[in-house]
Amino acid sequence: MLGKGVVGGGGGTKAPKPSFVSYVRPEEIHTNEKEVTEKEVTLHLLPGEQLLCEASTVLKYVQEDSCQRGIYGKLVCTDFKIAFLGDDESALDNDETQFKNKVIGENDITLHCVDQIYGVFDEKKKTLFGQLKKYPEKLIIHCKDLRVFHFCLRYTKEEEVKRIVSGIIHHTQAPKLLKRLFLFSYAAAARNSTATHPKNHTVMFETLQDWCWELERTKGNMKYKAVRVNEGYQVSERLPEYFVVPTPLPEEDVPRFQGHGIPMWCWSCHNGCALLKMSALPKEQDDAVLQVQKSFLDGVYKTIHRPPYEIVKTEDLSSSFLSLQDIQTAHSKFKQLFLIDNSTEFWDTDIKWFSLLESSSWLDIIRRCLKKAIEITECLEAQNMNVLLLEENASDLCCLISSLVQVMMDPHCRTRVGFQSLVQKEWIMGGHCFLDRCNHLRQSDKEEVPVFLLFLDCVWQLVHQHPPAFEFTETYLTVLSDSLYIPIFSTFFFNSPHQKDTNMHQRQLSLPLTQSKSSPKRGFFREETDHLIKNLLGKRISKLINSSDELQDNFREFYDSWHSKPTDYHGLLLPHIEGPEIKVWAQRYLRWIPEAQILGGGRVATMSKLLEMMEEVQSLQEKIDERHHGQVALQAEASSLLRASARLSSLFPFALLQRHSSKPVLPTSGWKALGDEEDLAKREDESVDLGDL
Fold first, then answer.
1. Are residues 291 and 411 in the same domain?
2. Distance between CA atoms of residues 449 and 38, nearest Å
3. Same domain flag for 139 and 237
4. Where does it sit, as one GO cellular component term (predicted)?
5. Mind spelling out the 3-state secondary structure of 174-212?
6. Residue 396 domain-assigned?
7. Do 165 and 72 sit in the same domain of this protein?
């Protein structure tokens, strides 16, 4: 298994803290340095990207069980990414290269994607930040897309270690100014290049006409109007230049409180009801000001309560729903389940995995979001009510809930272009603070909350439960979640349209998305999963979700009635929200964990096998017909398909197949509580060796 540029180590599988053992002496590494360097992968730089620091003779660990193997190479840091350049291309099949990200390589980490950096000192793991007095012998990087990288610096020159570690810490952890983001260097370089962006048919909602078209599409133009009162951001830098309000509302009311207290249109239902949102008025202590605010709101409510408007139901998301702190706390706990260092740690923590999942409350938060969206859908669809969403700035939970309602009620939002337009309208123009919520500037951890990721997770539940209703796949959503941390497209790097317009000198492509080839639409917890993986990772999780809260009678009737009928994929779409129906988004969260994947399994692999069988049948038929030349060609094509399917997994196309062994290790410390291994085997249907799959 070992080749040039690869260092191997061994150790007992029961060691609690495995340490690196090299079969190659340091002097041998330096002796072969010239030969290895000649095989290093070339560092590819994007327009405007600059190399900052680098270190040679770095070992990137590929960990399995308690043994450790490392690939020799160079670690570099640019103003865009951290990259490892090693002689590992031979380990990849040619069939895998067609599924690579076009911007980020397998061993690349954008600076914005770095979550935490750890150093190992005498086998002790410590968080790294600021100026270091002592430099680590190992570097561990946890990424926001849940990848984990281990680098050994033991054989790297001391000065290079100082430069690369200090450089990585500074450029990923230190607070930075907006103008120093790589986004601006790339934009400036791209302007001077001849490259052109592909045509994008997403509605950008940057003109008055865009909003008028959306009103016409939803038949909301009879009761609502697009206004230009904020053109040039004269009223508020928080609002877009153009937006929609109820027709009777005087435009001179909008500037009164800089857009606060104004009901803004989100979407109109087929029956004429509409979904609105409103940001709260500024908190005041002065009685006179409070009286003015009260009179102002009374006038606004009278406007939207009188004919031709239906009854209005108000949903105050700031006081009667989730808090941003709830979301952040749950996600912080949840992501730790997937930041796995090695196989031993994976199997050690497996026995308590479901209790940790339950304690994180992430799945319950998803359920509550979907439930709230269904409640609002029921008001619009069944009770013919307008719904007004309230929030302090109407830019977090309002974006989340209004978007979910539209995905459920409007089939246009379930197309690829429609979904991108929805994100542009409700999130970008809606003023969601991506810069703060993703903490791109590293200025305040308190502002970091994964609200948009929560939205994507909720949409994934719908895609997973009703795949025929969507024009896009789960891979599309996974790529979109990764794009949050790639500072090339301006979509997710500003707090408001005003901030984007004043800082960017050129419009860029809205969403960095391309429709993938086929990808698995079935979830991880399906009957096709083999017995061992199903028992360890795919147990039903009904006990994790508290369904004891009684749903309102009208909600329950609406919910049950819809699910009792055949699904119309071009109409209203409701998710199942009870018990085991809320699942872990396996493709996103488990894709970097080889032990959680079924090699050669999953829907894509199954389809590939079916194609192979069809080709074989056709080949045999042609043989019978004595068409020798056609047979040879078809056999070659079938062989190609077979080679490709051998690299597929249940989490295609993100399969991480680098660990040399996927055979599970039963940690004796954890399993003793359940009895000895023979008793355990008797309890399971069958013990399966993952290496044979």
1. yes
2. 44
3. no
4. sarcoplasmic reticulum
5. CCCCHHHCHHHHHHHHHHCCCCCCCCCCCCCCCCHHHHH
6. yes
7. yes
Q: Check whether residue 397 and residue 500 sit in a common domain.
A: yes
Q: How many CB atoms lie within 10 A of CB 143?
A: 18
* Average pLDDT score over the chain: 80
Question: Chain-centre distance of CA 312, in angstroms?
Answer: 35
Domain ends where: 452, 482, 506? 506
Last residue of a domain, one of 122, 150, 174: 174
> For residue 4, is it within any domain?
no
Contact 224, 244 (CB under 8 A): yes
268-283 residue pLDDT tens: 999 999 999 999 998 8
Q: Are residues 130 and 214 in the same domain?
A: no
| Amino acid symbol at 277 | K
Contact status, residue 226 vs residue 242, Cβ threshold 8 Å = yes
Which residues constitute the domain of residue 376? 208-506
Instruction: Say if 419 falls within a structural domain.
Output: yes
Q: Which backbone phi and psi does 150 adopt, to 5 degrees?
A: -120, 125
Residue 634: predicted pLDDT: 46
pTM: 0.82
CA 570/CA 466 separation, integer angstroms: 11
- Are 344 and 66 in contact by the 8 Å Cβ rule? The answer is yes
Q: At 106, list the tokens.
A: 């397998």
**Residue 152 burial class via C-beta count within 10 angstroms: exposed 0-12, middle 13-18, buried 19 and up:** buried
CB 667 within 8 A of CB 15: no
Interhelix angle for 451-465 vs 324-335, to 10°? Answer: 70
* Overall domain count for the chain: 2
First to last CA, the chain: 20
pLDDT, tens only, 155-209? 999 999 999 999 999 999 999 999 999 999 999 988 776 555 555 578 999 999 9
Q: Determine, yes or no, domain membership for 10.
A: no
3-state secondary structure of 325: helix
What distance in Å separates the CA atoms of residue 483 and residue 395, rounded to the nearest whole number?
20
